[in-house]
Design brief:
With 301 residues, the protein is an alpha+beta fold. Helix content is 20%, strand content 38%.
């Protein structure tokens, strides 16, 4: 355990010391508890690359906020204020510093871990901040606060229309700002923005929705989060089946077909095998949840 140190309530393990890479880089592995968040700070000597191995961590880099999970990577350039906050019960990340040198500050201000089961000792943050300047590290503010995002939750069955509109708008903004990727409860899901023509109003309406594939067709499930009524977009496509779908960087023109009978049941079962939550929705409502298939007519980037 000689290369592992208690630091700010978590542990830091030196995986690659700077001398082993001729001073070009150093690599440390951080194990942090929930809500771990160092003060906002700036590195003047080195860049950082954060690779999340386990857990959920939000990184703040300048004015940007990134919600990352296992397998995700972010970059922190020197000279830009940054920090992070752990959002899962525990987390583990691999941090690469280039060039090396800052790892000496961590070991200088940490306490060596003697045994695997010991509790963390008190951490002297003031002493760590006082020595930071010797390594080109500047503390510029308190730990940042994560701004909640629409994707953190799914609207409840009692959400009123205004709450749903605000949620929809928040998901759309996150989708378009991240080339079609949405985090939070939708992390790892295939998300689309569906724009339909209102059955009564004739106005375009955009809805964020999870999509699935059946060969070349795109499938949307009209679950409406388990509500007793079909979603508005379902009524719209029955009246006006030509729609726009945004998927990743592409915008598609597609035509909707409401599946029926055995085909609907087959497709619903296939989707439930991937996302069992739809089966739970169906158990608690009397309406049959529709499966709508979309054939792509035109693509554009």
């Amino acid at each position: 355990m000689s290369d592992t140190f208690w630091f700010l309530g978590g542990t830091v393990e030196v995986k690659l010391p700077g001398h082993a890479a001729q001073g070009r880089a150093a690599q440390l592995e951080f194990h942090d508890p929930e809500e771990q968040s160092p003060p906002l700070h700036v590195h003047t000597h080195e860049d950082e690359i954060w690779a999340v191995l386990e857990g959920e961590i939000t990184f703040f880099v300048g004015d940007e906020q990134y919600d990352l999970g296992a397998g995700d990577v972010a970059f922190g350039p020197r000279g830009v204020p940054h920090s992070y906050v752990v959002r899962s019960p525990t987390s583990r990340m691999l941090v690469t510093f280039a060039p090396a040198g800052i790892e000496e500050w961590f070991t200088r201000n940490g306490t060596p871990v003697a045994t695997a089961g010991e509790l963390p000792p008190p951490f002297d943050l003031d002493a760590a901040i006082k020595s930071a300047g010797e390594y080109g590290l500047k503390v510029v503010g308190p730990p940042p606060v994560r701004v909640p995002r629409a994707s953190d939750t799914i609207p409840s069955g009692s959400a009123d229309p205004e709450e749903l509109r605000a949620w929809n708008q928040g998901i759309q903004e996150e989708f378009r700002a991240n080339s079609g990727k949405v985090g939070g409860v939708f992390k790892g899901s295939d998300m689309a923005l569906l724009t339909t023509t209102g059955a009564k109003s004739g106005n375009p309406t955009t809805t964020p929705i999870t999509y699935y594939r059946d060969g070349d067709r795109i499938l949307l499930i009209a679950s409406n989060f388990g509500r007793t009524r079909h979603p508005a977009w379902y009524h719209n496509v029955r009246m006006n089946p030509t729609v726009t779908l945004e998927i990743g960087p592409e915008t598609l023109t597609a035509r909707a077909t409401v599946t029926e009978g055995d085909e609907r049941d087959r497709l619903f079962a296939e989707v439930v095998a991937r996302q069992p939550g739809y089966a739970e929705y169906q158990k608690h409502i009397d309406r049959v949840i529709p499966v709508v298939a979309f054939d792509v007519l035109k693509r554009r980037s």
